DNA sequence: TCCATCATGTAAGGTGTTACATGATTGC
DNA sequence: GCAATCATGTAACACCTTACATGATGGA
């Protein structure tokens, strides 16, 4: 009875959507802010989105292609002489509608995955030295993420507010992520301190 | 030049591992704690691992099969009369070695994904009402996760400490995750309060 | 001369989700 | 009689990552 669903977006008339296509919608969202090329989109990911989503260039280009095929975006080729041509994409009306639909739709619950915690969980099966190495490296990673966020904030936050409202939510996301990272860093630091102390006692 | 790599685990002699197989290793880790069936593993995921990793039953069974084929686990069939037979798996020596290798290996950096933040980011493009709905639902989800963790802690934490050291890291993971969730909840609550206030002013 | 940046992609394969399939027992 | 629990799995597909491919310009 149940129809086989098409490979992508919009196609499911049966309105029992099963796939999420989050990347598609993020890209539509970015293209709504301003028309961009695949390359621009990758840049934007690195600068503004990386802390909670990212994608390799290959995925970006294939997704652009599928969005184009689905009629959600249109393209304008900008000929350049001294560089490869740019293909600048922007939303179609259908794309705009589809984006709005997604924005209003509930956020689906999905399994959270954290490889660091997965490994840490089993550290009791080896020795504390191994755990300490992982914890220290994780601390470094957290610190770098926080640093990167602050850097981007300086560069980006000072700029335009020609869409005040848009910026507001972007700041909220940053606040959220920063709070999360800071909390994680604190726990990590405490754990490192505890372990270091214990290892010192053992040596003595 | 570069050799094509085999489909799974251990096979790459060329030691430039590219895939992560995190789920495989988590399952090996769980089986090291005690021998289990696929069903038991799923239970354990729900009870103890869900906050940072999870998998559907189908994935668990297929992964068990591939671990078995790779010689990392062995099976004992326990015949039951009034229920389907249980296949209880445990690590082989090779599996044990492979697990240890993974535990000592660096945690690879990977893109973090957060669908809620992805959606929130673009909420400036619609109206505040939509954002408020998402935020409230997210708050509910965070509260439930925290509640679930506390429940599991009562049930599980009171039990055996026949491996003190193992438990220690499991508690650390819980502490970490709880701190993260709590920080997120605070930011979410603040954001909701701000929005509610603004919407009330607009109405007046 | 070498490296970074600009700019585009294809192919292959690994990982994760959803839908579907089966069937007995225990407790309400 | 119905739902939940125990217990196993297959098939299809959606999603993501890695490796590979190309090639010009501009600055150190």
Overview of the structural elements:
2 copies of one chain form a homodimer. Chain A is mainly alpha-helical. The first copy, chain A, has helices at 22-33, 38-49, 57-69, 93-104, 115-121, 128-157, 164-203; strands at residues 73-78, 86-91. The first copy, chain A, contains 7 helices and 2 strands; from the N terminus they run H-H-H-E-E-H-H-H-H. Chain A starts with 21 loop residues before the first helix and ends with a helix. At the A-B interface, helix 1, helix 4, helix 5, helix 6 and helix 7 of A face helix 1, helix 4, helix 5, helix 6 and helix 7 of B. Chain A binds a DNA duplex (28 and 28 nucleotides) through helix 3.
Largest interface: A-B, 66 and 66 residues
Number of strands of chain A: 2
Structural class of chain A: mainly alpha
Strand content of chain A: 5-15%
Oligomerization status of the protein chains: homodimer
- The stretches of 5 or more residues of chain A where confidence is low (pLDDT under 50) are 1-8, 10-17
- Radius of gyration of chain A from the CA trace? 22 Å
The SSE string of chain A, one letter per element, is HHHEEHHHH
Largest β sheet strand count, sense and barrel closure of chain A: 2 strands, antiparallel
* Overall pLDDT score of chain A: 87
Give the end-to-end Cα distance of chain A, rounded to a whole number of Å.
72 Å
- Strand order in space, largest sheet of chain A: 1-2
The number of helical runs of chain A is: 7
Overall geometry of chain A comes to elongated
The portion of residues assigned to helices of chain A is 55-70%
């Amino acid at each position: 009875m149940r129809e086989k669903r098409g490979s992508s977006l919009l196609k499911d008339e049966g309105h029992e959507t099963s796939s999420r296509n989050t990347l598609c919608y993020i890209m539509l969202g970015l293209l709504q802010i301003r028309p961009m090329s695949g390359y621009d989109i990758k840049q934007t990911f690195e600068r503004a989105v990386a802390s909670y989503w990212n994608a390799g260039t290959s995925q970006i280009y294939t997704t652009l292609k599928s969005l184009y095929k689905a009629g959600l975006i249109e393209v304008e080729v900008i000929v350049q002489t001294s560089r490869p041509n740019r293909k600048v994409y922007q939303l179609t009306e259908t794309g705009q509608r589809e984006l709005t639909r997604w924005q209003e739709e509930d956020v689906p619950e999905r399994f959270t995955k954290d490889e660091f915690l997965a490994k840490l969980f089993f550290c009791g099966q080896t020795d504390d030295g191994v755990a300490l190495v992982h914890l220290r490296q994780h601390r470094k990673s957290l610190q770098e993420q926080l640093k990167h966020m602050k850097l981007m904030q300086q560069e980006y936050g000072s700029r335009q507010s020609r869409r005040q409202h848009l910026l507001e939510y972007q700041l909220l996301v940053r606040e959220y992520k920063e709070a999360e990272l800071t909390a994680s860093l604190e726990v990590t630091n405490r754990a490192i301190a505890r372990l270091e102390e214990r290892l010192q006692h053992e040596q003595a």
